[in-house]
């Protein structure tokens, strides 16, 4: 008997979470749609939506207009304005903070553009905490903050948000998550994830990866990171440090030196520095605008820029072909600065795929990130929402 | 009410499967151990073991000797002698068939060594079917065949066991699974899997990968295949063709030609032909014994053989380092002919890992297959048992 009650309670909790996730990710849905998607009858759905409505997590209303005969089904909406999270994105060249409502809507944001040098933990935390408090203060009085998440441009220890290694920031073993949590003073932990991992999750949920169970997301910043979704879940590996596709070696004989100490890594061959060097740009130039200027120059026919993009495209193609052979993904998504680069060297990438990928795996879509510069931020918000979605009404 | 009954029935079915899997994979276990591992009370365990005993899938007995005070807990054993599967392994140089008992014990086997040329579908199916019928006839009269599985050295379409592409056998789009099923005449379908995928599953369940959730298995035959376990499950990708690690390109500039039409693939740089060519062996030599003779010659100090193993080891190291950066596995396992090769070039492999793998992912075990030449066969038997384990007592 005790077992039956526990089972029913576990089923109820799971159903509440599934329903909330469906409207959080998929947007407003009619009760009948939810019943069909969850395989439950309408009275069970009504009981679940009743509980979630009482808790303020969703609202239900009847659509005003209906062109069809019969009573229109009640529509269930996530309470975007009443339930939100704070999401942060620490990139090499900017800090972003946002208030994101249930349903994944960015409601408010703050941005600080940064110079690259001298970005120490205290500075970063201080700017973000001030943004976070300001966003919190600007929220409606009856709104509830359900969690805090952050995206970070480096290796993050999954357990505690410790930044393990971030060569582009000069951080080693910094307690970023706990420091930001303390500075925010909201009494909430800050869940931290690697930017490319979060970008992959965001694209999978809400971007170019919707509908695929297997995807590869390449994120170009100063370095090149990756997030790989295998059978619907982020590949993390035995200790949480998988997906390091920037450091697969493609050019061991005579490849360019990499920040990691090795040679011929994907990051070394297709990263920002490789493109700028190959295009003959001075070493004082860096950043997204410098990358864009090479892409623009190539579009105007500048020889050096065209050659640079062809060469970068060839290495990018070799790397992507390897990833396709390993993961047989439905889609490969280019994010960060690779959003600017990929369209200008798509021909090289596709030629390598035609040459190096086994025929059975060639049915793969290649595209740029649909969420653009918000991919990692949206991923951070999903990290923040995860606790609520997993257990919407804890007993 | 209907929902509650369905829920209880689903829970019961799941529990029956979980219990059967625990003793099938882990071997005999006491009722109290099973209760603890499944988080259920002893009376629930007794009800489950009662049903499985009545169906002949397990037996229960009290251990004869107990050094401890109190009544010893009843021990639950899989019915190895009464419930079996037929498992087949089609490799380039041999055909193997076995009767494998519940619990994963190879009870009986037949082997045919083959020349490489002229291995067409009818020949292979005819030999295997004759082995299978003979194994079936030799089984005890009261034993039940629960399924049939086969491992194949090529790309297999997951849905129907169609061999899609097997360059080393010269097969393209051959209906291997259905042909073998028809020829066996047991009225059972034959589930077919790729050899390296099955080797990975077998090592994960019963070999060098036990206790790890993430592993990479490299299988050297004429080519090099792979099976990769991500978070406990075989990576298959969007269409079932993932894990093709033999065709990741490591040496695009001046690499050796590969059977796939590309250049510098892992398979081209570390496969049987690369090793034999580098060691100066004539092109008429091939196969496992030729590989072993190079390894033996290197052990005796032959210069050409030592150089060949060092070079193969360096490329193997680059490939393995790339896989570790991507998958952060707990263990990398070398199977097939790489069981002979890896120990003789472990130094080169480890040097590349030290150089190319990010520090956080370097905690990884490297070892040869624990199941040896039976890895793929055992994997095929697990494929055959999967239906029974998923649903031991269908209603």
| Structural domain tally of chain A | 3
Helical content of chain A stands at 40-55%
**Rg calculated over all Cα atoms of chain A:** 23 Å
Beta-strand segment tally of chain A = 16
Task: Give a quick account of the main beta sheet of chain A: strands, pairing sense, barrel closure.
Answer: 5 strands, mixed
- Low-pLDDT residue intervals, each spanning 5 or more residues of chain A: none
Our estimate of the beta-strand percent of chain A is 15-25%
CATH architecture of the largest domain in chain A: 2-Layer Sandwich
Organism (chains A, B): Virgisporangium ochraceum
Protein name (chains A, B): Sugar kinase
GO molecular function (chains A, B): kinase activity
InterPro entries (chains A, B): ATPase_NBD, ROK, WH-like_DNA-bd_sf, WH_DNA-bd_sf
């Amino acid at each position: 008997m005790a077992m039956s009650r526990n089972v029913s309670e576990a089923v109820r909790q799971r159903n509440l979470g599934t329903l909330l996730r469906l409207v959080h990710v998929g947007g407003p849905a009619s009760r009948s749609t939810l019943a069909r998607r969850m395989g439950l009858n309408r009275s069970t759905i009504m009981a679940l939506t009743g509980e979630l409505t009482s808790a303020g997590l969703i609202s239900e209303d009847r659509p005003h207009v209906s062109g069809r005969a019969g009573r229109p089904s009640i529509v269930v909406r996530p309470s975007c304005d009443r339930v939100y999270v704070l999401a942060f994105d620490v990139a090499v060249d900017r800090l972003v903070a946002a208030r994101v409502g249930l349903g994944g809507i960015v409601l408010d944001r703050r941005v600080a553009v940064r110079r690259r040098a001298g970005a120490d933990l205290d500075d970063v935390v201080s700017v973000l905490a001030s943004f976070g408090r300001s966003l919190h203060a600007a929220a409606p009085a009856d709104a509830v903050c359900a969690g805090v998440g952050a995206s970070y441009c480096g290796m993050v220890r999954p357990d505690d948000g410790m930044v393990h290694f971030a060569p582009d920031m000069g951080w080693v073993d910094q307690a970023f998550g706990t420091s930001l949590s303390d500075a925010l003073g909201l009494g909430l932990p800050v869940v931290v994830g690697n930017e490319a991992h979060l970008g992959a999750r965001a694209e999978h949920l809400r971007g170019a990866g919707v509908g695929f169970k297997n995807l590869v997301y390449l994120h170009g910043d100063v370095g090149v990171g990756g997030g790989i979704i295998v059978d619907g879940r982020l590949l993390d590996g035995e200790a949480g440090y998988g997906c390091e596709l920037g450091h697969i070696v493609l050019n061991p004989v005579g490849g360019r030196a990499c920040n990691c100490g090795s040679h011929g890594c994907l990051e070394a061959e297709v990263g920002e520095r490789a493109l700028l060097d190959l295009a003959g740009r001075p070493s004082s130039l860096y950043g997204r605008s410098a990358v864009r200027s090479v892409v623009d120059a190539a579009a105007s026919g500048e020889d050096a820029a065209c050659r640079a993009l062809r060469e970068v495209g060839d290495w990018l193609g070799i790397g992507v072909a390897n990833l396709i052979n390993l993961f047989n993904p439905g889609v490969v998504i280019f994010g960060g600065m690779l959003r600017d680069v990929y369209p200008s060297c798509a021909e090289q990438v596709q030629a390598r795929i035609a040459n190096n990928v086994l025929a059975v795996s060639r049915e793969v879509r290649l595209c740029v990130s649909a969420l653009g510069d918000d991919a990692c931020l949206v991923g951070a918000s999903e990290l923040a929402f995860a606790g609520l979605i997993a257990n919407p009404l804890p007993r």
